[in-house]
Amino acid sequence: MKVRIPTPLRSYTEQQAVVDAGGSTIDEVLHDLDRQFPGLRFRVVDEQGRLRRHMKIFVNEEAERDLSTSVDATDEIVLMQALSGG
C-alpha cells in the first residue's frame, strides 16, 4: 500500500514523499516502514507503543489513532505531523 510521508520525516525515506509498505494493521505497516527506513517508527510511536501526540494517521482520509486498525493493500495511509513553533 502507499504511505504518504510528511516533510519532516522524509530524511528517513531518502526524501521520498510516498513509499510502499505492507501489513494488515497500521502497526504492521509502521513496522514494515521501520524495517525499510530504520528509525522512522520511533518518530511516530512512543516507547509504550502509542501514537505520539503530535502525529496523526489517516487511512483513506479517515483519522485513526488505534494502531491495531485493519488496513488493506488498496488503502492509502497518510502520516501527518503537527508543527509547532514559538
Q: Give the CATH class.
A: Alpha Beta
Q: What structural category arises from helix and sheet content? A: alpha+beta
Please name the CATH architecture. Roll
Give the tally of structural domains: 1
Biggest β-sheet description: 5 strands, mixed
Distance between the amino and carboxyl termini: 36 Å
Global shape: globular
Structure description:
About 20% of the residues lie in helices and about 25% in strands. The protein is of the alpha+beta class and about 90 residues long. The protein has a single domain (about 1-80), classed as Beta-grasp domain (Ubiquitin-like (UB roll), Roll), CATH 3.10.20. It has a 5-stranded mixed sheet, with no helix packed on it. The radius of gyration is 12 Å and the shape is globular. The N and C termini lie far apart (about 35 Å). The mean pLDDT is about 95.
SSE topology:
Blueprint (H helix, E strand, L loop, with lengths): L1 E3 L13 E3 L5 H11 L3 H5 L10 E5 L2 E3 L11 E6 L5
Parallel strand pairs: 1-5
Antiparallel strand pairs: 1-2, 3-4, 3-5
Identify the notable features of this structure and list them briefly.
86 residues, Ubiquitin-like (UB roll), 5 strands
Concise summary:
The chain has about 90 residues and is of the alpha+beta class. The chain is about 20% helix and about 25% strand.
